């Protein structure tokens, strides 16, 4: 009888422990990486580690293809079905915050003081999102080509001027060794255009919108500096220095590797593959067209939906996911820039003296976020069309004036995108 009592007691105790083990509150999370096996494995490992590290919360992941992700979030917001944790592309965040999809992170911003500026999603003075990585664009070149063409190697402290850049384009074209001097990735007509090409406009002294109040594009997208940019931009295609909008997408991926182009304007996400096939590749800073050398900043980041009833748990997960070991793991696996210098030192490519350490420096010194405004979701598409049209030969002044009219009309239609 005593034996039976002991057994029953043990069973009750075991059942009690089992109930406690399954008492974790579920946190739902959406992610844009469906179909990317490496990225999916990494994010699932972080989730598994977090779920095993404590007994309060259990994160459950649902992944979406990147191309349909934003539409899925918008539809869910309208239906009142947002998850607790979202990831989002950095420049989209202000629109989602303004639209009421997000809540500010209940995390002291000081926790992320050492993170690269581009990884911090700040809108209306509040931190809404934080990223595990950033991305940077550089001018890919071969050392052997630079020597053959007699070109100075630009540095962060002394990038190429406009004249030096154009001299390099001319030298490459006149060498007769390449299909074109540079691949700009014109086949990728999505977010690549404002991310990769807006910095050229900014270096000329223009911009997509007046950032003093984000109320108009007039004077910055169609002023003298923007017109000068447009004329230069059009000349790159008119003079045959770069393939235009009909470029084969495969050439942006492999054209530089295959020797079709002397240079490529490309992201660090293609650097590892390129290094494996081009022994003497080097990554050079953006040219300075008169107002500084600039590249885009801001990549995918984590945030908490406004609908979440468990913001404290979601915040715990985000703090857990942003540990250096995970920043380094993502970097080693998919080649992106770790969000912190300490994480970079833990990686093969971005540690001091590593083959991609230059990209950390580029991001730290040159990165400029795309306009931090809810209207960016419209402005980016307007810029994409304008840049493509100008490349295809459209009148520069008329195209930029029309772009300004579209952007200003959208701002007016949305009452200046004032915060709710």
Automatic annotation (TrEMBL):
GO terms for biological process: maltodextrin transmembrane transport; maltose transport. Residues 1-23 form the signal peptide. Keywords: Signal, Transport. One of its GO terms (molecular function) is maltose binding. GO terms for cellular component: ATP-binding cassette (ABC) transporter complex, substrate-binding subunit-containing. It comes from the Bacteria. PANTHER family: MALTOSE-BINDING PERIPLASMIC PROTEIN (PTHR30061), MALTOSE_MALTODEXTRIN-BINDING PERIPLASMIC PROTEIN (PTHR30061:SF50). Belongs to the bacterial solute-binding protein 1 family. This is Extracellular solute-binding protein.
